[in-house]
């Protein structure tokens, strides 16, 4: 199955709901690529021995990896963490997540600053480019298990919006001019 993405409404209702516009306004993989988002579909059942994942990690230089299970029983301060993940922010490095189980959403900004919701589920490996404004939330299942990948040492710092003064943000915005 392909990745599903759509423009979302501005409702303050539970962030874990889909928030699709009526009528739905889907966003294609091609449109996501133009925003710098990359996606691979892998077999999460064999992630420990998957040659495709190994090749991808080698090709992209993803040298660091850990696994996080986001659920109220496994993540200390679950509700506080969810609020923090849902704050609009950017990173100075790419954000690389491989969903091993469960479901969640990444929301990203398009060129006109509108929110796009990307639904990720088991087998989705997604990269958000350094400098893109985004946020993360669970869906109504309240469970996801994800591999976090990094080039080199992990950097956990999120730069909350506004963060337009960062070189990486300016570089990202400049990269959109050509697409």
Automatic annotation (TrEMBL):
Q: What does this protein do?
A: Catalyzes 2 different reactions between oxygen and the acireductone 1,2-dihydroxy-3-keto-5-methylthiopentene (DHK-MTPene) depending upon the metal bound in the active site. Fe-containing acireductone dioxygenase (Fe-ARD) produces formate and 2-keto-4-methylthiobutyrate (KMTB), the alpha-ketoacid precursor of methionine in the methionine recycle pathway. Ni-containing acireductone dioxygenase (Ni-ARD) produces methylthiopropionate, carbon monoxide and formate, and does not lie on the methionine recycle pathway.
Q: What is its EC number?
A: 1.13.11.53, 1.13.11.54
Q: Which domain of life is it from?
A: Eukaryota
Query: Which subcellular locations apply to this protein?
Result: Cytoplasm; Nucleus; Cell membrane
Pathway field? Amino-acid biosynthesis; L-methionine biosynthesis via salvage pathway; L-methionine from S-methyl-5-thio-alpha-D-ribose 1-phosphate: step 5/6
- Required cofactor names: Fe(2+); Ni(2+)
By its UniProt entry, which CDD domains does this protein fall under?
Answer: cupin_ARD
Tell me which residues bind Fe(2+): 89, 91, 95, 134
Query: Keyword Cell membrane: yes or no?
Result: yes
Q: Which is a GO BP term held by this UniProt record? A: L-methionine salvage from methylthioadenosine
Which GO terms label this protein's molecular function in UniProt?
Answer: acireductone dioxygenase (Ni2+-requiring) activity; acireductone dioxygenase [iron(II)-requiring] activity; iron ion binding; nickel cation binding
Taxonomic source organism? Gouania willdenowi
What does the organism's lineage look like at the top?
Eukaryota, Metazoa, Chordata, Craniata, Vertebrata
Supply the name of the protein.
Answer: Acireductone dioxygenase
- Entry's family note: Belongs to the acireductone dioxygenase (ARD) family.
What remark does the entry make about the cofactor? Binds either 1 Fe or Ni cation per monomer. Iron-binding promotes an acireductone dioxygenase reaction producing 2-keto-4-methylthiobutyrate, while nickel-binding promotes an acireductone dioxygenase reaction producing 3-(methylsulfanyl)propanoate.
Instruction: Provide this UniProt record's keywords sorted from A to Z.
Output: Amino-acid biosynthesis, Cell membrane, Cytoplasm, Dioxygenase, Iron, Membrane, Metal-binding, Methionine biosynthesis, Nickel, Nucleus, Oxidoreductase
The way it spans or sits in the membrane comes to:
Peripheral membrane protein
Which Pfam families is this protein grouped with?
ARD
Q: Which residues are noted in the entry as Ni(2+)-binding?
A: 89, 91, 95, 134
Reactions catalysed, semicolon-separated, are:
1,2-dihydroxy-5-(methylsulfanyl)pent-1-en-3-one + O2 = 3-(methylsulfanyl)propanoate + CO + formate + 2 H(+); 1,2-dihydroxy-5-(methylsulfanyl)pent-1-en-3-one + O2 = 4-methylsulfanyl-2-oxobutanoate + formate + 2 H(+)
Say if the entry is tagged with keyword Nucleotide-binding: no
Residues annotated as transmembrane = none
GO terms under cellular component:
cytoplasm; nucleus; plasma membrane
